Predict the structure.
Amino acid sequence: MSYRAPVEEMAFTLRHVAGLDAVLAHSGAEIGPDDALAILEEAGRFASNVIAPLNRIGDRHGTLFSDGTVTTAPGWVSAYRAFVEGGWNGVLAAPDYGGQGLPHLIAAACTEMWNGANLAFGLCPLLTAGGIEALAAHGSDDLKGRYLEKLISGEWTATMNLTEPQAGSDLSALRTRAEPNSDGSYRITGAKIYITYGEHDLADNICHLVLARLKDAPAGTRGISLFLVPKVLPDGRRNDLRCSGIEHKLGIHASPTCSMAFGDAGGATGWLIGEENRGLACMFTMMNSARLNVGLQGVGVAEAAYQKALGYARERRQGRAPGSPEPVSAIVAHADIQRMLLTMKAYTAAARGICYLTAQALDAAHGPEGKAAHDRASLLTPVAKAFSTDIANEVTSLGVQIHGGMGFVEETGAAQLMRDARILGIYEGTNGIQAIDLVTRKLPLAGGTTVGAQIAAMRRVAEGLLKDGAPGFGLAAPRLREGIGSLDRATSFLLKALASNRPQDALPGATPYLRLFGLVQGAACLATAGLAASAALKAGETDPAQAARIALARFFAENLLPAAGGLEQAILTGGDFADDPAFALAG
Amino acid sequence: MSYRAPVEEMAFTLRHVAGLDAVLAHSGAEIGPDDALAILEEAGRFASNVIAPLNRIGDRHGTLFSDGTVTTAPGWVSAYRAFVEGGWNGVLAAPDYGGQGLPHLIAAACTEMWNGANLAFGLCPLLTAGGIEALAAHGSDDLKGRYLEKLISGEWTATMNLTEPQAGSDLSALRTRAEPNSDGSYRITGAKIYITYGEHDLADNICHLVLARLKDAPAGTRGISLFLVPKVLPDGRRNDLRCSGIEHKLGIHASPTCSMAFGDAGGATGWLIGEENRGLACMFTMMNSARLNVGLQGVGVAEAAYQKALGYARERRQGRAPGSPEPVSAIVAHADIQRMLLTMKAYTAAARGICYLTAQALDAAHGPEGKAAHDRASLLTPVAKAFSTDIANEVTSLGVQIHGGMGFVEETGAAQLMRDARILGIYEGTNGIQAIDLVTRKLPLAGGTTVGAQIAAMRRVAEGLLKDGAPGFGLAAPRLREGIGSLDRATSFLLKALASNRPQDALPGATPYLRLFGLVQGAACLATAGLAASAALKAGETDPAQAARIALARFFAENLLPAAGGLEQAILTGGDFADDPAFALAG
């Protein structure tokens, strides 16, 4: 069973959880909710019909590396061309250079769809989007004039060249060098690894955004500059850079992960983006949306795994469910299978809600809310990235489990989703780094008022549940209140540790805290959707999807959210393991 | 970094958690603790030096299927021969047919080592052990005389032929047929799938244990019989059976997973094991130890992942840890990496403790304790199987995470462990089925007194912590007491639901209950080890490993065990999702 974009559920979340209508009202795009829905439906058709069928093909074929060139799997070139011709690459980008200028919220939904259909395919425009953002924010007009339009259309693609063998999470250790030429360009020399789509046959040119160090630059991250280094130079010659190999990876086989060599013949030509030694700031510009996009990859692949598992559970017949009139039941009739399916569905919906809230904050940062919304986006981004990708690992693994022995056989496709998903918690900042970012940089934002406001918003949802009183919510109201209590106390504990300059009390709890935040925020998102559904039912609507939303909010609150209390305990009283010499971990 | 058998830690757990000395005292094997340790050390050398180096080779080469034959990876034939010549295949089997007759406890430790070194290799003797057990318990003297000695030596191997395309977890749907011949043998016809080591080049003969249905047999599982169907007949001719293909799998590439065709030329010749239509009872005989062995596979691969991740974390340098004098620290100095490593180590040690306790109960069932120990083994077996393999998935995934981007590249080997581990929660009864077995069949054992006694034993450990009072235990005592309270209340709830004939209240909580049981039992095991360590320190011992055991018990109790409360909530108040029509899961 192939992925179908769940457009109705996505649209409901956009409107009733993330406030799409208000975003559209403040957006320059001048479209209404109906136009937005039409765009989503068209994107859904493209994702389901064009991109999704290439997912298994890409996994089986991988990419072919030969003598510096990379050939993608059969069908990929024409699908990517159709993607470009459909205008899908430019959904978010500003209209000045040909973008559609739609809100982050719409772009987020599209990103989820491309990646639900095919993570390896979705990665290519995801990388290009990062390049567009960095160039648009920091590039000179000349550079923008030369590159932005073709990147926005997708005729050319972009890459991020950060990692080197000795410099993964720690960019201060970079060694790639840049030297100025007399004409204002730079000569780039060095080796990069793990460059996604560093070389491929989908586009005529590839714009490498390369972090490098100028001679005499300050040590550490304050001495890093960002350069645009194109595969093909403006005069049509090949630049002095090449792909020296591709990795054999656990998943996303169709996405080439390249080692890149710059300057074998004296130096690749590049142009500075932004100021010298300010490359990291340029990178940070695009980090919020790049990390959000990886979170959306998690949502997409989790949704794909849920659909596949549900389809299988409806077909596969084994054993007789208690009370069933049939001698053999479809396995979907067994309580344990239902628990797994609902866990998959609930986590996916929760992560979707968190990601869309984050996109909404990015949009609102350009509106009247301004800085408060920007700070909210900063707060939510590590949660959107890490929670969504952590649950993507869990959900895709449950998908394998529901398939039983068939899940372990590659032919079924369930295992591919698990393999593909495994990178999401690692790249674009490991999830451990997201947790540290959340605790040490994001909680203290605006003196703690950003996180305080977010928790207050969750409390309003819990109050809404109490007020609504629909019996279908079960124990959702008290469970959400308990979860918020845990989050609140854990937040205070961490803020106090940071204020007392005791990071050693805060860092051990960073990962449990991010999970706690995601659980409670996710429960609040599902409750918000459930409340909208309840209101619709009270107003006489009869769509059965509305009752399902209430039931899903209840399932999450009663079965998954209760983990909050244990996480709180770990954060508040579990951190003494750090640097305990008894463990002799350092050897 | 390749696996090294952690013999010292295993021996400590065997003696101080699982009571090896008492087992040896009641065993017929007439060896003492020192002899046992010598055996373990020898096994550890064999696992580390002979089996482990083949793990990556096996993953890369897989097995080669051609025209009905299967060729294993380079080096596997000679390693298996060395395994047989070393007498390792017969550790557990009774001496009548050449076995060493050692206790389950010793065999369990050996099984952990073979599988820690190489899951795909360890599977072959694991399957043979199941065949030996079924044949020894139910085979006629004639059949035993013909097959048992060569199976025990390992010159011949055995398989379990259960699954058919329409019959996975649900064996009542089997279609393979058996018809009696005039000479007392049977003609077997049918097709089986997912037959591990169904064909290979490691041994001269393969004894297939095949579940099949006699003509006119009662419907369902009461009409299934078990047959021994050898690849090579006693007169040297090939039997009418063949391997018709092998699967392309997520992991354990070096272990051939075969489709088997029986009776293409009229019928394969087989011999009945046990009585007609009693095949399932014969299968159940060996299920306790087979499931325990799969649990031990989980412990082994988790240990391997921990060792690999620890080795990497000590080498890899990224970022500066707070308070570090060095500009760049080994990543093991970062709190979040420590949290992951200790989570891996603690889960692995907890699962090891549970598995060894289970093996101890199997041994004690033959001693003065008798039926109570047998029931305890039955109770603990699904926990040993499912908890150990669930944590194996989590631990191997954490192993990938610690490697960062390198973890996603197959060359590193971390990803292989995760891929290999993924089957453990599926085969030999999915973990969902283990949970249902635990709740519906094992909790009611002996009127609930079996589980009651087990919880009482955990309470004694918690009291021991209070009495010991070593500050290194931190909050272990109260956390363990809280966890036991959750387990106790959840157990009462489930027993009451079953006694009221309301399985619909019990089944939705089965999986959370198994996790809860494993967490609390695992914490009790680590606390037991910690108490023994504390006593040793008080007696003047200075081995730093003792302090590490106390610290690990604390880490588990403070950071992982607190999940117990949320699981209790899910079990007691979360089950209303089952068959809720709002979800429309059935379509």
